[in-house]
Design a protein that fits this description.
- The complex is a heterodimer of chains A (30) and B (165).
- Chain A has 30 residues and is mostly helical.
- Chain A has 1 helix and no strands.
- Chain A has one helix at residues 10-29.
- In chain B, strands 4-5-9-8-7-6 form a 6-stranded antiparallel β-sheet.
- The model of chain B has no long low-confidence stretch (mean pLDDT 92).
- By secondary structure, chain B is an alpha+beta fold.
- Classes of the chains: A mainly alpha (30), B alpha+beta (165).
- Chains A and B meet through helix 1 of A and strand 5 and helix 4 of B.
Amino acid sequence: MLRGTRIIEGEDAIRYNAVINTLRGCLHRS
Amino acid sequence: MVPAIWNAETFTDKVGQENSRMMWRFEDKGKREVCLVPEITGLLQETWRESWSKQYRTRNVFYVAKCYRYEKPQRGRYREFTQFGIEMLGSTDTDKAINLLIECLDALGISYTLDVSAKRGLSYYNADGFEAKVETLGAQKQIAGGGKYNEGVGWALGVDRLILI
């Protein structure tokens, strides 16, 4: 893997998707 | 959804001298100077000027995009990172953009401070910008930034930092 890149997995991956879903939901409500 | 690869020229004038040095820039097989996108606002500004402004009076867009900057990696700063952003092209309504950012940050349930007269590093901003910070993140505490530019107003959030909170 190249320096400064990473595989986002496990809890981080769940949080990553949750954050994006929350933000998307917020925009759709606005 | 936006491409990860774009003409380097779009960003070399706009991302500021410091960020220009951070670009993943190379020549493709057709001898074109291209780059991995260091940010998204610049390419949407160009798309607005060249195309969308001829079809729309205003256009609101959002994106979730991988961006690339050749910086020194550390906690909360990676060479490949994700930005969630909005651009209100053809608009000058900074207050609306800030309110939308506040709504989004509040929806995440995080504690943050918002500076609405921040000096932004990117040269396309034509007024003071705004930045959100989370103090507990330490060195990489800025989680969002935005402002008004000639083509509109917008902001972006750093998703990689949000998942550290």
